Amino acid sequence: MLFSPIRPHAESDWRLASKFTALFAWSLRVSDLGVLVGAGLLAHYLRFDTFTMPIEYVRGLARGVLFALIVLNGSSLYRSWRGGSLTREGFKLVTLWSLVFAAGVVYMVGLQLAEEFSRLWWLTWFGLTLAGTLMTRVFIRTLADQLRARGMDHRKAVIVGGGHDARRIAQGFAAQPWTGIEILGWFSTPSSHKYLDEVPLLGEIGDLAAYIETHGIDQVWISLPMSAEADIQAVLGRLAHSAVDIKLVPDLFGLHLLNHGIDQIADLPVVTLQQSPLQGSARLLKGIEDRVLSALILLMIAPLMACIAIAVKLSSPGPVFYRQERVSWNNRRFEMLKFRSMPVDAESGSGAVWAKSGESRATRVGAFLRRTSLDELPQFLNVLKGDMSIVGPRPERPVFVDKFKEEIPAYMKKHLVKAGITGWAQVNGWRGSTDLQRRIECDIYYIENWSLLFDLRIILLTLFKGFIHKNAY
């Protein structure tokens, strides 16, 4: 039996993790209560220019808050979201709150109470509450992810099975510590013909149940081909008396599915293996998000951009902006704007050069702008124009696109959406000359899981840690 040493504090670790999970769940409940009440008061102020409510509004607010909390509490919104989809959570929240609003309208009309309340106040309360609950969820989820990435609120897990898919599981959790899932090792099965080097071998499936009991394991991830049904049933049988979460990862990695789904076209069931997530209304929402936010941001940073423009102009002869051809959505080319950070003729002799740490071609002002990412600010003009998005995969020059698409699998999938100023790869530290394969994996993860909530989360992470980074140059 290849057990690693028994951890004496398994029980206390589990209790601590459970306390963190309960704390985050209650923080969501408290924040929802605060948003519901606060949004109602703010809506009243915006409509009547006073926070003081008549008694009928107080009663209406109390009924609405109570009903909303009952509905939300009866859903799965307060369960642990560890590794779950932010998109699904946001969609569920929008759906539930819309149902609460519709039920409120039916209630008021049915009891002939509609004339007691301002319709504008009711609509404003609905909109403010929806926006507030979405934003607080993004904030709390981001905070929870950061704490888990620092070692708090972890869940211990093991893998059953070896090979490529098991390796993807081990590498995925190692690269995304914000999930709080710690893979301790793997167990072999009769059908496991390949070894897993990323984590230690803990034994065979006959040893699994005892290891789970002695080490306080929370999750078992089964990574076996669907053809190995006998081994899967054997694992389930041995875990019949264990209270662990059991997850089966089907052997679909090899298909490289991207935003896949089952549709019906001409009475034929069709599996979509790859498509852009920005179809129809999603594309419209993304466009509105980009145009509105870029316009607001440009208004706020206009004085800063003016100061930078003066500094660039004084630092060396040449224009303030540097225009460079890049490749974006659907392989379309556009001129990306930056504050000029190098002399005008920096690439006249060398041609296109990949930026590296310790870049010597930059001016003194340019080097500072690169380290702080302030040279990227003019790209909000690209967003306003429609060439880029605020959030998306970073664009590359055509010469590098032609090179990387031959060297890196799935590289061109990043062009299923518009290029962005910031992205999931950048906030996770994959920028500059770092591992391009990991950057592409992050870009594809963003494309597969796109939502407005995910965009907001990336923007918040960029504000907290995305401007100044060791890989920014």
From TrEMBL:
The chain crosses the membrane at residues 20-41, 61-81, 93-114, 120-140, 292-312. The keyword S-adenosyl-L-methionine does not apply. It is a multi-pass membrane protein. Its main location: membrane. Its EC number is 2.7.8.31. GO terms for cellular component: membrane. Coiled coil: none annotated. It is an enzyme of class 2 (transferase). GO terms for molecular function: undecaprenyl-phosphate glucose phosphotransferase activity. It comes from the Bacteria. InterPro entries: Bact_transf (IPR003362), EPS_sugar_tfrase (IPR017475), NAD(P)-bd_dom_sf (IPR036291), Undecaprenyl-P_gluc_Ptfrase (IPR017473). NCBIfam families: EPS_sugtrans, WcaJ_sugtrans. Belongs to the bacterial sugar transferase family. This is Undecaprenyl-phosphate glucose phosphotransferase. It comes from Luteimonas terrae.
